[in-house]
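> example.struct
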């Protein structure tokens, strides 16, 4: 029996709508601009850090509220390989610095007409193909090394997830205030 390759129409329409909204927000927040992404790595523009921290907090609150209200929510969290995550993070960071976009902002930049983003999209497709070809080797020799059973920070620290969210909020407020002052000082 063949698997169902097509999602219900509502899911497809919702996915397209979310994609357009995300692209619009990337564009309005200037996250689809090369100079903003590279500015984060040069410590001259902290827009990306502010957006990511805000997204982490909002997402964390949303997920934990849904869990608290016992809404149907399926979250699969698996043990991971520290070596594989480290190598993947380094490669991802190098790609972002060289290209000036992450995968999401690259698609948004291509959509707004940035020609350099199209080269990035081709690079992502080519890189994905290479990874698919070497995945059995990576799985055998890298993903199995330094595997951890750690899954969730609240379980590791044995504290409420709300304490971690509160800490993130406090750190973000302090960080945003500091970065705001630094930006004023640079002018």
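> example.seq
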């Amino acid at each position: 029996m063949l698997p169902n390759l097509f999602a219900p129409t509502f899911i497809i329409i919702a996915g397209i709508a979310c994609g357009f909204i995300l692209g619009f927000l990337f564009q309005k927040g200037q996250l689809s601009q090369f100079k903003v992404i590279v500015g984060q790595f040069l410590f001259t523009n902290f827009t990306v850090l502010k957006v990511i921290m805000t997204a982490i907090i909002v997402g964390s609150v949303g997920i934990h509220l849904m869990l608290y209200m016992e809404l149907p929510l399926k979250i699969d969290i698996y043990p991971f390989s520290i070596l594989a995550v480290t190598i993947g993070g380094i490669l991802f960071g190098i790609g972002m610095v060289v290209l000036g976009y992450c995968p999401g902002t690259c698609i948004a930049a291509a959509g707004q007409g940035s020609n350099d983003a199209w080269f990035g999209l081709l690079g992502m497709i080519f890189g994905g193909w290479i990874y698919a070809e070497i995945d059995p080797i990576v799985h055998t020799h890298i993903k199995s090394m330094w595997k951890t059973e750690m899954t969730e920070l609240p379980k590791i620290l044995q504290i409420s997830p709300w304490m971690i969210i509160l800490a993130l909020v406090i750190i973000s407020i302090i960080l945003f205030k500091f970065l705001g002052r630094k930006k004023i000082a640079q002018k």
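> remarks
The two ends are 64 Å apart (CA to CA).
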